[in-house]
Design goal:
Strand content: 15-25%
Distance between the termini: 113 Å
Number of helices: 24
Radius of gyration: 44 Å
Shape: elongated
Largest sheet: 8 strands, mixed
């Protein structure tokens, strides 16, 4: 292996003339990227002849002394790689055997998997391998691929170029639909998306294609539609697989001009241009029309004075004859092309993608062989193992490979410099990238008497090394316009509070406040009348105040970003809502407790005069504790408005108030509310035999029991729907607060209003402090002091008995 003693260096180039696939129960060979392969083969032959002639028109360094004085002479064989791992290995092994191992370089292979196999064989036979088109990063200095390198751009460079272009036209939400064989693409395109601030999602499909089910094209397209993404990049294992994708896209309704389709670098545009014909309106036509692709550019694609292109056009009929002889495909076989004498002068036979890279690959192998040959001659040996250490040669590698990867020269594809310290691929700043636009071209098919679309691709933008993309030609999108679809992504579900539900909640607030104001106004107007005065109007007013305070919390939870409120202010409103609700709740029940405790003291004769301040201690303690907890919460761990993505695929979001220790603080505040409710209930029980004119105990019991039932049902519902439905959570909270706030005032003050209107609800007359016994004798015994409190209920001998000489007074001062 390696350079012969006479300086001969044979290079084997592998190109995808055909595709080996499965046809029924037998394997069959079919035409694949034939024009592509033929163009690359021509470039390889040009490189061999230019190197042997040391023609420096394209590579100036060939005129350097180290190469002009070198006796290395290249020979070339071209093999069909069949776009298949097995076929590549089989053909290459057979060729090495035919050459009796006299081979010093392997070039070519477009397919990533076949390229890896070629790299493994190169390492096994101690032969350098350079790919001109494969992108896989797995070809590196690992033992398995120890003698491999890439003239082509690395897969991350290609992914980065695609993402940068899409970002340049404002596409920042991209869906990659890939075949299972291209799983490596996920890593590089996702990384490129992160580095460029682009949201990249992925969806897989894989053959064999079922009509439905996981992994089918239809399932993949349904998922794409669910995501709402409208920029879709396709990476199929084979170009023919796009037929299935196109049909599935049409079936789910995403093949319209509102979507932008791009072909990943693995899709060969030449195959589309060569072989695809569709009728206008076909699913495949909808997919291809306006499609784009970003790939590495050959110099001839954007430079009219390109040296390689000029040399290409100068190839004469003798060169064409040598090229036809080199063709590995036998006449009449799939993939065979016979070039006419004027092939290179025909404008239709423009060099195809990666031709300049194949040229540089062959030249690099020749130049590396020259340097290795010179080193051995200068050291008087034919074995690289005898080279002195000062030559900087790693004996674990191959001398020719070692010198090849250290090369730097101006090639047909740009500056070639392979030594990047890890993967032996060129630096990204040596590549030019371009965006291509696939456009339909209407042709009349005389055989079928119908008009059909063929497809052409046009370079529309380019990105020179170190620069941004610049437009060369307009990009024509599927709708015929030169501006991309305006919508990048269908509006995903943000779970905003709907205006209708919000209006319902605010209506409940308005109704609740109105009821409380009416009740409070009636109490104020009638505060000096006996039914209100003995019910302690000050406390009734506080109950209305607490109820209104809690209702305000509904207003504070009635906003989100859809109403123009920032996340900062939403967080402040979250904290304020807790203050209003919990303090309102505690004010209501602390007031009820104090009211009942006060009348109980009066009627139990514990003291002659009982002022509100004498029963304010429990309420003060509970409310103070709540304020302390709320203040600590706001300072240490305040609630913040947090909008999280709950479905990464669809982009669905959910906004809510949250803090780290929210459960702890809520638990403490809830405990305080339970204590307030409990002591109010206990005091109501103690006052059960006091007249409703004073204590309203049965109505308070009714309110407490009603609210306990509502809380028991409502709180679990809120917990269940809290992460499922913003509207359900909001209306459940609003109803709970409304029922609490309104039920208390209606049951405590409402009966007094009804009584004043002459509507009696009835009660037991044998209660402490009952006014107006129907026994006239009793009234007479009381005299005219109707405002005095007649105390009964301590096992009295008769309903008319009183404890004379004792008068307990309720003082509202």
């Amino acid at each position: 292996m390696g350079v012969g003693e006479d300086g001969s260096c044979h290079i084997a180039a592998l190109l995808p003339f055909t595709e080996i696939g499965m046809g029924g129960n037998r394997r069959k060979q079919r035409r694949y990227a034939t024009q592509h392969a033929f163009s690359n083969m021509a470039a390889a032959l040009m490189a061999m002849e230019d190197f042997n002639a040391r023609d420096s028109r394209i590579v100036p360094e060939l005129s350097d002394d180290e190469f002009t004085e070198c006796d290395v002479k290249l020979s070339l064989s071209v093999l069909d790689d069949g776009s298949s791992n097995d076929f590549t290995v089989s053909n290459l092994l057979n060729h090495i055997n035919d050459m009796s191992g006299e081979i010093c370089g392997i070039a070519g292979v477009n397919n990533n998997f076949a390229a890896r196999e070629a790299a493994v064989l190169g390492a096994a036979f101690d032969v350098p391998y350079i790919t001109h088109a494969a992108e896989t990063s797995k070809i590196s200095r690992t033992p398995l691929y120890r003698l491999s390198a890439k003239i082509s751009a690395d897969e991350f460079f290609r992914a980065d170029a695609l993402i940068k272009y899409l970002a340049s036209i404002g596409r920042t939400h991209i869906m990659l639909v890939y075949s299972a064989v291209h799983e490596d693409i996920i890593r590089v395109i996702t990384l490129a998306g992160k580095e460029n601030g682009v949201d990249v999602r992925t969806e897989i499909f894989q053959p064999p294609f079922a009509s439905t089910g996981v992994g089918s094209p239809l399932d993949a397209m349904r998922r794409v539609k669910e995501s709402g993404f409208r920029t879709i990049v396709l990476a199929p294992a084979r170009v023919p697989h796009l037929v299935h994708i196109a049909q599935a896209a049409q079936d789910v309704g995403i093949d319209t001009d509102e979507y932008l389709w791009f072909a990943y670098d693995v899709v060969d545009l030449d195959i589309i241009a060569e072989s695809v014909k569709t009728q206008p309106g076909d699913p495949l036509d909808n997919l291809y029309s306006g499609m784009g692709s970003v790939r590495t550019l050959d110099g001839f694609a954007f430079k009219d004075d390109d040296a390689f292109l000029q040399a290409w056009k100068e190839n004469d009929k003798e060169f064409v004859s040598r090229l036809n002889t080199l063709n590995p495909i036998a006449p009449q076989m799939p993939g065979f092309i016979f070039a006419q004498p004027n092939y290179f002068q025909d404008e239709r036979n423009f060099p195809i993608l990666f031709s300049s890279f194949m040229y540089d690959t062959v030249v690099a192998l020749g130049m590396g062989a020259c340097r290795a040959r010179n080193i051995m001659i200068n050291n008087g040996t034919s074995s690289p193992l005898q080279i002195p250490q000062q030559v900087n040669f790693n004996p674990g590698l191959n001398l020719q490979y070692n010198e090849t990867v250290k090369l730097q020269f101006q090639g047909a594809s740009g500056i070639v410099n392979l030594l990047d310290g890890f993967s032996y691929t060129r630096d990204i700043d040596t590549f030019t990238f371009g965006a291509y636009n696939v456009r339909p071209k209407l042709e009349f098919d005389e055989m079928q008497n119908v008009s059909k679309h063929r497809y052409e691709y046009f370079l529309t933008s380019q990105r020179l090394p170190g620069e941004e993309y610049s437009e060369i030609n307009p990009f024509i999108y599927a709708d015929g316009r030169t501006t991309p679809p305006s919508l990048q992504r269908e509006a995903f579900e943000n779970n905003f509070l709907s205006s209708g539900i919000r209006a319902t909640g605010l209506s409940l607030v308005a109704i609740g406040i109105a009821i409380n104001l009416i009740m409070a106004t009636w109490v104020f107007i009638n505060r000096k009348k006996r039914p209100v005065r003995v019910s302690q109007p000050l406390f009734l007013g506080f109950i209305c105040f607490g109820s209104i305070t809690s209702l305000i919390s509904i207003i504070l939870i009635s906003f989100d970003e859809s109403y123009g409120v920032s996340a900062t202010y939403l967080g402040k409103m979250c904290n304020a809502a807790l203050w209003f609700f919990f303090l309102g709740y505690l004010i209501v029940y602390s007031t009820i407790f104090s009211k009942l405790w006060r009348i109980n003291k009066v009627l139990s004769l514990h003291r002659r005069v009982v002022k509100p301040i004498h029963v304010a201690a429990p309420a003060t303690i509970l409310i103070t504790c709540a304020i302390i907890v709320l203040v600590v919460w706001v300072i240490v761990d305040p609630l913040k408005w947090d909008r999280q993505t709950i479905d990464d695929f669809t982009g669905e979001t959910f906004g809510r108030c949250s803090s780290r220790y929210v459960t702890v603080y809520i638990s403490v505040l809830t405990a305080l509310c339970v204590i307030a409710t409990f002591i109010a209930g206990i005091m109501a029980y103690k006052c059960k035999d006091i007249s409703d004119e004073f204590a309203e105990t049965r109505y308070i019991f009714t309110a407490i029991l009603t609210q306990v039932q509502v809380w028991i049902i409502g709180i679990p519902i809120i917990i269940l729907v809290n992460s499922m439905s913003v509207n359900a959570t909001y209306i459940a909270k609003a109803l709970l607060v409304f029922i609490f706030a309104v039920s208390v005032v209606l049951l405590v003050i409402g009966p007094k209003i009804l009584s004043s209107l002459g509507i009696g609800l009835g009660e037991n007359n044998r209660k402490r402090g009952k006014f107006g016994s129907k026994d006239k004798t009793s009234k007479d015994k009381a005299g005219d002091n109707a405002s005095g409190v007649h105390v009964s209920g301590f096992n009295p001998p008769s309903p008319a008995s009183t404890i004379s000489g004792v008068k307990s007074t309720v003082v509202d001062k």
